[in-house]
Amino acid sequence: MMVFGTRPEAIKMCPLILECRKRTEQFDVVVCLTGQHAHMLLPVLDYFQIKPDYNLEVMKEEQTLTDVTVEVLLRLGPVLDQEKPDILLVHGDTTTTFSSALAAFYRQIPVGHVEAGLRTYDMTSPYPEEFNRQATGILADYHFAPTKWAAQNLLNEKKDPARVFVTGNTVIDAIGTTIRKDYRHPELDWAADSALILITAHRRENLGEPMKRMFSAIRRIVDDHPETKAIYPIHMNPKVRRIAEMYLTNHERIHLIEPLDVFDFHNFMSRCRIILTDSGGLQEEGSAVKKPVLLMRDTTERPEGLEAGVVDMVGTGEEAIYSAASRLLREEAAYQAMTGGGNPFGDGFASVRIADILQQITAD
Ligand code: UD1
Ligand code: UDP
To answer: What confidence tens digit (pLDDT) does each residue in 122-149 have?
Structure first.
């Protein structure tokens, strides 16, 4: 059984579901959504043509961490009792991830953690994701680490080396299916004559003052660089929307739009000039499409992007964001220096590797 609940988990689990479903002799795959995200993940399932078997529908407007944790625990239990899966696969670091792993642990169902071993070792950043991924690591029986660095973290934590696997990140499998040379979109037509800045922002620890500084910097960048336009497909969290509306509306070169489907978003990434984000997954995808990512955070669990040179962690200070973006827009050499590295996050075959390993595990 695979359980997930948010947009990024869906984007990264769908390639694995498709790979496992190809292996009809070996696997009978059950897909369960927690519904932590009620809207943003459904287009992902449509794109990959996956129909879930269960949807626990836990989402509430402005839900708290307690709401999600408790509802997933309560509602997933009966599904696990009914399906009795050989293994439950969870992904990443959301509250869905942790609560689902805990629900399986309470029933002594083995847990496999996909995208395991990412760490900042700072419980406040990202919050609560660092707790979720460490706690899931404690609950998991099998750890599918995307990179050697992530696997080493798990080994340092004394996980059984026989149960830690380096697989690559399944997001690279996903992005291999989405980008099209002939892709068109009215928003990209609008931005065609510009240096396009693509923005995402949603982290809980950035809500409030950090996000105000981030958006204020972005407005100044666009103001001071007439060659730029900015597109921000805005997260559905009303707390994010309220701040974005304060800082980024009423500007003829800034478009706030609804979240894009993953197919569209990947194509926007491949056409933009730079990416400004506080996201986890965009660090991996930026590396794949070789677009400079200015990471508006103080920590990252994905240092590989920094080492490859495609990600620059600029923090959430207004001046730091403004000057890093201005430099990239003005200095071609600085720009080119961020686009040349390899992609440390995978080769497009992570799902195949994970499915191969699952085949061995379930055959034992
Ligand atoms: C969650 C994850 C975060 C992940 C992010 C991906 C946790 C604690 N956080 O954060 O790790 O990076 O998803 O986007 O697990 N909303 C909707 N419709 C949707 C989705 C969200 O209306 O489809 C609104 C709701 O009002 C909801 C709010 O957004 O209450 C926040 O959603 P939530 O899942 O709690 O937090 P995210 O910030 O999305
Ligand atoms: N994404 C998307 N549409 C958008 C913005 C992002 O499909 O409008 C995708 C993006 O390609 C990436 C994922 O959502 O795979 C990132 O999600 P998010 O930043 O919300 O979460 P995080 O990765 O930080 O957990």
So the answer is: 999 999 999 999 999 999 999 999 999 9
Distance CA 167, CA 357 (A): 10
CA distance 108 to 67: 24
Which residue's structure tokens are 């004394």?
158
Q: How confident is the model at residue 363 (pLDDT cuts 50, 70, 90)?
A: confident
d(CA 17, CA 3): 11
3-state secondary structure the chain: CEEECCHHHHHHHHHHHHHHHHCCCCCCCCEEECCCCCCCCHHHHHHHCCCCCEECCCCCCCCCHHHHHHHHHHHHHHHHHHHCCCCEEEECCCHHHHHHHHHHHHCCCCEEEECCCCCCCCCCCCCCHHHHHHHHHHHCCEEEECCHHHHHHHHHCCCCHHHEEECCCHHHHHHCCCCCCCCCCHHHHHHCCCEEEEEECCCHHHCCHHHHHHHHHHHHHHHHCCCEEEEEECCCCHHHHHHHHHHHCCCCCEEEECCCCHHHHHHHHHHCCEEEECCCHHHHHHHHHCCCEEECCCCCCCHHHHHHCCEEECCCCHHHHHHHHHHHHHCHHHHHHCCCCCCCCCCCCHHHHHHHHHHHHHHC
Instruction: Tell me the ligand closest to 206's alpha carbon.
Output: 1
Closest ligand 2 atom number to CA of residue 11 = 15
Residue 260: both structure tokens together: 């894009």
Residues involved in catalysis: 93, 115, 129, 202, 204, 235
Q: What is the pLDDT of residue 341?
A: 82
Q: How far is the CA of 6 from the centre of ligand 1 (A)?
A: 7
For ligand 1, atom 13, the nearest C-alpha belongs to 6
Please answer whether residues 171 and 285 qualify as being in contact, where contact means their C-beta atoms are separated by less than 8 angstroms.
yes
What pTM, to 2 d.p., does this model score? Answer: 0.98
Nearest by Cα to 92 from 183, 216, 5, 221: 5
- Number of residues that make up the chain: 364
> What angle do helix axes 209-224 and 318-330 make, rounded to 10 degrees?
30
Task: Of 92-101, 216-225, 337-346, 351-360, give the lowest mean pLDDT range.
Answer: 337-346
